């Protein structure tokens, strides 16, 4: 029997950092099992190997994936992203979503959108949208409606402040239960945020001081644990005498 | 063997305040008036228009009297078919290597898909009617020409991928950029494709191909090959 790490029926690399080339599972040793592979893993004939550096995660009983964090975004179906309008063509807007290609946002992909009420987005408008078509070959396609056709918070984001982060931080901000830094800030300040899985975050609050405070707190929280995030947020709030 | 003497008049106006004087130049050329092993070049005199018909690679000169070459090659004379009212031989130029195959409307081509977009796919034409092309031709397969049924529900991503080899029919010369191709027949479509894992896929049905390495099934518009 192989005693090599990663060649057993149950891999012991779960929750460890893996790099491309690591073999996670050996399919010849596993009979009659269904395994679901998420992002970052690839089947190489009889082996499952890692394609992206990150932490290997397992969701029992059989879902494996690699959690990684980059500054660049690879579009995936049903992701919610923040895009910046670059150009207005006759039948769609060209939107930059930090992906290898520009994304298309059809002019009719809004609630109640017809040819008569096409929204007038200028270059530089910030849009909160959902990815509806993403394969590696064609330009991704966005939509400002949810699956049932309602607007559901999608559309233009006015005022506020947008900054860029890594994709890992964006996912942490969207995790449930609520991310500790957002919870700690929310107790003392009222603000609203929109987080794009492509590594963009938009913050809006009643005064510029609050906007800056919230943005700085979020940017600093990427590598802190839950408790550290709460302490950091409270220190910032004290400094501005909000408590 | 008869020798032709050619007289070309070139009219140059002489600089004088009075009327223009003509200065003529005489150029003498020997040209062999039968099939030879010598190579003819464009513009070279081949024969009199009264004795020969201009075939492929030859043309009648503007003054209507001589047949000249317009390609580089060897000349070939074909006698007139018996029973035709015009008993002039046909002169044509053969052995020229300039022409590879050129796609014509109605010809079957083999092309490699280069780009897949929402409403069409671009392809590089490689062979025309089983003859390889010598220069690059671009073709476009539009969404409505992918298949014959339900043409408005065609998903280009499920029909072609970049790198696929397709057999297509040339619909028309298209626009300045590309020929218009069609795969809307049973025997047209993807002939050979590679899967994501790199293996050459095996067709299963007219919409699916399977990778032999991983067993994954991918969607394509597959050609029915006998």
UniProtKB/TrEMBL annotation, chain A:
Entry keyword annotation includes Nucleus: yes
Pfam family, one: Rrp40_N
GO BP: CUT catabolic process; exonucleolytic trimming to generate mature 3'-end of 5.8S rRNA from tricistronic rRNA transcript (SSU-rRNA, 5.8S rRNA, LSU-rRNA); nuclear polyadenylation-dependent rRNA catabolic process; poly(A)-dependent snoRNA 3'-end processing; TRAMP-dependent tRNA surveillance pathway; U4 snRNA 3'-end processing
Keyword Glycosyltransferase attached: no
Location of the K Homology domain: 160-208
PANTHER family: EXOSOME COMPLEX COMPONENT RRP40, PNAS-3 RELATED
Family statement drawn from the similarity comment of this UniProt entry: Belongs to the RRP40 family.
Protein name: Ribosomal RNA-processing protein 40
Native species: Rhynchospora pubera
From TrEMBL, chain B:
Domain Exosome complex component N-terminal: 39-78
Principal location class: nucleus
Stretches assigned to the Exosome complex component CSL4 C-terminal domain: 130-173
Annotated transmembrane regions: none
Places the protein is found: Nucleus, Nucleolus
GO molecular function, one term: RNA binding
Family annotation (PANTHER family): 3'-5' EXORIBONUCLEASE CSL4-RELATED, EXOSOME COMPLEX COMPONENT CSL4
Keywords for this protein: Cytoplasm, Exosome
The name this protein goes by in its record: Exosome complex component CSL4
GO process terms (BP): RNA processing
Pfam family, one: EXOSC1
GO cellular component: cytoplasm; nuclear exosome (RNase complex); nucleolus
InterPro entries: Csl4 (IPR039771), EXOSC1_C (IPR019495), Exosome_cplx_N_dom (IPR025721), NA-bd_OB-fold (IPR012340)
């Amino acid at each position: 029997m192989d005693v090599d790490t990663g060649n057993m029926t149950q891999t012991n690399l779960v929750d460890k950092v893996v790099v491309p080339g690591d073999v996670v599972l050996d399919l010849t040793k596993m009979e009659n099992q269904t395994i679901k592979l998420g992002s970052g893993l690839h089947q190489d004939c009889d082996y499952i190997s890692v394609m992206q550096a990150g932490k290997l995660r397992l969701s029992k009983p059989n879902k494996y994936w690699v959690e990684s964090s980059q500054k660049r975004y690879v579009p995936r179906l049903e992701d919610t992203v923040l895009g910046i309008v670059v150009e207005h063509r006759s039948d769609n807007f060209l939107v930059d979503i930090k992906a290898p290609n520009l994304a298309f946002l059809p002019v009719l992909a809004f609630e109640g959108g017809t040819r008569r009420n096409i929204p007038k987005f200028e270059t530089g408008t910030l849009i909160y949208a959902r990815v509806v078509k993403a394969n590696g070959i064609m330009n991704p396609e966005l939509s400002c409606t949810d699956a049932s056709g309602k607007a559901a918070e999608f559309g233009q984001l006015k005022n506020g402040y947008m900054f860029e982060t890594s994709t890992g931080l964006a996912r942490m901000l969207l995790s449930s239960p609520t991310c500790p830094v957002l919870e700690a800030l929310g107790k003392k300040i009222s603000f609203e945020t929109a987080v794009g899985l492509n590594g963009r975050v938009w913050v809006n609050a009643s005064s510029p001081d609050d906007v800056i405070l919230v943005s700085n707190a979020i940017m600093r929280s990427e590598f802190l644990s839950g408790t550290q995030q709460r302490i950091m947020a409270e220190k910032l709030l004290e400094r501005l005498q909000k408590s | 063997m008869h020798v032709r003497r050619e007289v070309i008049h070139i009219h140059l106006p002489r600089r004088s305040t009075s009327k223009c004087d003509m200065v003529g130049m005489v150029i003498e050329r020997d040209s062999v008036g039968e099939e030879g092993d010598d190579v003819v070049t464009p513009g070279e005199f081949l024969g009199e228009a009264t004795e020969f018909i201009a075939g492929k690679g030859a043309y009648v000169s503007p003054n209507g009297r001589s047949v000249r070459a317009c390609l580089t090659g060897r000349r070939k004379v074909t006698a007139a078919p018996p029973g035709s009212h015009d008993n002039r031989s046909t002169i044509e130029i053969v052995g020229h290597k300039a022409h590879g195959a050129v796609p014509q409307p109605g010809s079957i081509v083999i092309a490699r898909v280069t780009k897949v977009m929402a409403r069409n796919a671009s392809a590089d034409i490689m062979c025309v009617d089983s003859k390889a092309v010598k220069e690059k031709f671009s073709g476009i397969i539009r969404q409505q020409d992918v298949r014959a049924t339900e043409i408005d529900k065609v998903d280009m991503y499920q029909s072609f991928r970049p790198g696929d080899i397709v057999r297509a029919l040339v619909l028309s010369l298209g626009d300045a950029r590309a020929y218009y191709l069609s795969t809307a027949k049973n025997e047209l479509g993807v002939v050979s494709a590679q899967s994501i894992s790199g293996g050459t896929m095996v067709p299963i049905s007219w919409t699916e191909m399977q990778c032999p390495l991983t067993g994954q099934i991918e969607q394509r518009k597959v050609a029915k090959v006998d």
